[in-house]
Amino acid sequence: MKIMKKILSIVLSLLMIFALCSVAFAAGTPDKLSFNADGTFKILQINDTQDIDNMNKKTVAFLKAGIAQEKPDLIVVPGDMLSDMFIGATPKRIKKALTALGTIFNDAKVPFAVTFGNHDHDLEKKVSTKEMMDVFKQFEYCVSQAGTTENDPGSYSVPIYSSKDSSKMALNVYMIDTNNKNGSVTGYSGVYPEQVEWYKQKSDELKAANGNEVVPSLLFQHVPIKEIYQFVDQVTYKQADKACFNIDNRKWYALDENSGLIGDDNVMGEAPCSEPLDHTTGQYEAWLEKGDIIGAFFAHDHVNNFMGRTREGIVLGYNGGTGFRAYGRGDHRSMRVFNLNENDIENYETHSIYYCDVVGEKFDRYVSDFMSPAIFGDIFRFVLKMFFVI
Description:
- The protein is α/β, with parallel strands linked by helices.
- 30% of the residues lie in helices and 20% in strands.
- The chain has a 7-stranded mixed beta sheet with strand order 1-5-6-7-12-15-14. It has a 5-stranded mixed beta sheet with strand order 4-3-2-16-17.
- The longest helix has 27 residues, at 2-28.
């Protein structure tokens, strides 16, 4: 009898341990994202890590420290995870680099969503973006969804449900792949027409599934839309000390303080490298038509970190580069934090966190890639100072 009691006690203990583990595991799974019980939800934007299979130690330290400090509910990565200087890249090494990045997020047990930037597309001849996405989807905490088409695995939406009603979407997150250069236009082409149509259909689907109520949405993509130029002003070379040079149209631009900028910590270190100013994708117009976008945030320009409200009322903004193999100053390496409350979803708070503050190390030298637009601006300023009175 005593032996039977001991056996029964052991079995019951094991069952309790298994049950507790199961509950803990279920609570941490990212199958259905929801606002926290107190109505809050935090998103951390990370972009332009631009790394190789041997990740930069400073980038790794920044990622781990930033995630530990902020404890986000969702990480979004709008592209350029791979370096444009990935010498000797092979399919195996590319997948290893992506796996290393995904492992950091997964080990932190934070749900994450990724899409692609121009440098990721640069390596498509070796590994397709579908194969890249498959690398991330092997991780438990990856919440990336099926893309718009087989050829566009990087565009999808991630619904986030209310803490009060698990059937009601309180927020939606769009991840949009802005592709690569298009031979039909100068520079980066932005989204394609079929992506705009997909967005319209998805917006309608979400509205219908949400009791015919528009679902407030944040959108993340790599290349900015041209409407970002609403916040800058064209200036002359005589104002070069506070301006940035656009190498595509050979004009100087500076932030326009009277243009709807939000906050007092806006920084523009290079002219926005958006879709061409004379090229129309219809993306912004679609956002206005559907009325669900409460903010669109970009990457791509590593030394730009500003945001503002457009004349039409949509917030547009940047996060500068996060990784240390991308061009830009070390003290500008950043991530962007979004603090949302489901009771006042449109009035979210957002700010940047910087490497020097998070890691506690000053590092202000320029970081690699000396052919960046920011460097071109510095060179032109130097030449103008040498030969002109400015």
